[in-house]
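[Amino acid chain]
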Amino acid sequence: MWLKPEEVLLKNALKLWVTERSNDYFVLQRRRGYGEGSSALTGLLVGTLDTVLDSTAKVAPYRILHQTPDSQVYWTVACGASLEEISQHWDWLQINIMRTLSVFDSGDDITSFVQGKIRGLIAEEGKGAPDTQEQERFREAVLRFEHLFGLPRQEKLVTYYSCSYWRGRVPNQGWMYLSTHFLCFYSYLLGNEVKLALPWDEVSRLERASSVLLTESIRVCVRGEEHYFSMLLHLQQTYLLMQQLAAYAVTRLFDKETFDADHPLSDPPRITQRALEVHARNQAFRAFFRLPCEENLCEVYESFLWLPFSHHNTLGKICVSERYLCFASQDGSQCHLILPLREVLELVDPGSRALSVSVRGKRGFRFSEVRDFERLAATIRRKCVPSTSPQHSAVTQVSSVQTPLEMMVGQKKAVSTEALMNVFHPHDTENLDPKMLKERMKEQLWQIHFAEYGRGSGMFCTKKTRDLVVRGIPETLRGELWMLFSGAVNDMAVHPGYYTSLLEECMGSSSLACDEIERDLHRSLPEHPAFQTDTGISALRRVLTAYAYRNPKIGYCQAMNILTSVLLLYAKEEEAFWLLVAVCERMLPDYFNRRIIGALVDQAVFEELIRDHLTQLTDHMSDLSFFSSVSLSWFLTLFISVLPIESAVNVVDCFFYDGIRAVLQLALAVLHHNVDSLLCCSDDAEAVTILNRFFDSVTNKDSPLPATVQQATGDRSAQPTVDITDLIREAYENFGNIQWEEVESMRKRNKLYVVQTLEETTKQNVLRVIAQDVKFSATQLEELYWLFKRQHFISCYWNQSSSTLLNHDPSLPYLDQYQLGHGQFCSLFSLLLPWGNTFCLADQNEDGLINFREFICALDVLYNGSFTEKLKFLFKLHLQPDCGGDGVIRKSPERGRGKFDLQEYLKQWQDELQKKDDNIKHLPRINQTQFICLSKTLYSVFHGDEEEEHLYCAVARVTSLLLRMEEVGRKLHTPETSPTGTHSSTLDTPSDTPGDPPSPAAGGDWSFSFEQILASLLNEPTVVRFFEQTVDADTLIEYARSAQLRDARTHVK
């Protein structure tokens, strides 16, 4: 165990301790009388003396001392009851501490660092203490966190760790605080204070790293700066938690995803470490077994499963969710099983910690050596609810005779109940063509597999299953097995009638997605006969429209039409819809949206795999981004866009069984097959030609499809051909060691970088467009953009019902991706320039939200405008109706769910770009109430200025002058006198006393034009000088950046 460092004299230690190991900074010692060759009497004698003379011997017979070469004082840092225990501590010091100590210049610094680190480790181990002590420690940590970093109380501290933060080559021992939106660190050692608060939404890299100086550390990159954290007691656990928090920030702030009320991550101020771990565990569980998004991992049991086909038990884990019982082996057999609980008919408990589960089809599964098997049996019995939900099964008997194309007619639209391939290319059982004979042999192999391993739900999936998939699934079984392997069969079973009702709701509606779908319908496999008729086109339209209506965040994206076309060839229309759901929402997450983040992430993963497996290409090409750009279509369409349809379906077979791993393996195999030619390329164009020529040479020699269906790619007689089955087999043989867990880890690691790269591109586009219209420098514009973006995120941090979250529309241009509501805008604007409530005037399109263009244009006038422009801004500000900031968002017509007029939207932006300044003559007159408010605003603007008193007097003089002018003008137009014969003038002499404007005459309201106010103020040099002076934008921006979070703390309730 680690000990609180205590001083011990070496002269006492030499009498009673034997040195076992030593280095420049640490000594491992054994007490005499213990260990091999020591008698019991010696141990008793030495132990007695040791107890009297050395108090450290009361702890354990082994200890580790810290020393420095220039000191005679030693410090105890660890002890142990056995050599194995103390060796673990010694090894940890060797790996994590030794290299670090070499950077210090003095022995005192080394000792201080070691003492701080050991105390941190003791505190870390103390976090496993009883609940009451742990809760007390955590409350103390929360108070320190709030005091040190000044964040709102709603910012939830998830956990904290002892670690070292590296600033240059010097480590700073302190504490890392992980909260829902920030990575914080604090250290105070030898008078040196280090304080960090890094937002998760600005993290671009988060990965484990190692170097000569640091054996293991966590590298965090934020806005181009790298931060290293090391010497963590549980580094992997800490890294995974940091990864989860960063992923949560991306999901909630960039993707604008919201969670159901009962989700553990639904309320940011209540997120805990356990909630994050549960969420990550559920995600991994659903991804591995391809289960619907509603499923959560409830219970896990270790057990053996009897494999009837190999007559032995395999060790693995039983995972139980709300509606499924799943099993995955852990002994290398790669066997997994999914049992829908709706299929369970009987549960037999033969005793001896074993369970037998019977399902439909007179099949049984025997689990043995189940820990807590009684609890498992009770869980299964409780969850088993027999159901008659429709399932995709080739063995289902059909009671009525079916025509080649049946139609299940709803209220409005007809739904095809037959795969298009069966309609346009029915299976000919009498054909004795060699290719058809091979196809029948494949079918027989699968029938044998079904007989041994089962069919449909509850089929054992093993290495043999994968081998059959690699050889190509038979045409007649492709739809059934796609549904099974993808998990779409489960989605369809638990949502009966969903697709038909969805069609009734969405067909006939008009939206931007519908327009894009109509445009791409006839570009989807145009060579195939099925999509040269209305039958295929109508089915494709219905599936794509239904999905766009189901998931408006994705809507429709190019490449979805190509994939859906292939799905319709081998699956019924409703099945094709659920296959599309499985692909878009589970198997290829974030692929089919406006930014195709998922595809770009997998491109980054592909680059990593190239560096690991194709080193000759890495040595030849320093920049591998070429392969990412050229392979994007491979991933988006699963090679359908580059391979003939008869070959591409074999790739889709492997994809539905192994997921994205199969696509990555095949992409690597394509490069490996052409590596020699690629190494000889002189430019990118030549490399593209080589790859296109290779894809043209890929064939499927065993395909039974007729020539009218196959996609010819030119004359292949002049070049050698490659069979798709051989290419896929080569991919599995050469790159089959790529594990699913490895791919998922690389996906998480690269997603942050991809998201931040896209954000950087968006920022550059926005600044490039706006820089033409404002006078800010490039640096100032960039800083203001960061402030605006941070304010947008702050509005989402602690409020799950934020208006910016609820009204987010991913289809809007990049200029509108980040917007502020009334409260957020006023808070930020007051930090930069407190000139009143400018929200309504800045909201040019009157939608209740301010985008960055509107924000920067308003700020540019106040920072860089002339005296006339600033005064006109204030004048127009007080002409606006009261903007109460009630939080109501008045969305523009183009943001609704109705039809989107793109030309009208572009014309609106063009009008804004070409809009000239309003002519001052066309400005309306300001009335009595508005003028009083204008005067008060001027007083507040002048507050704090060096010439404040003179400015107040100037405003008072101008106010009095304007009122006298108005009174004179009124007399000229109405010469009547009062009953007493005197004019009822209220003002005879001007007043130089600052204060509220004088009250007007009782005879009605008065008003002023902008020209009158401008001319009057031009006669006051003090006022002109105030408005014409240069605004120190850099200082104000720096102040706003430092005060933004502090200001948020005062506004968050």
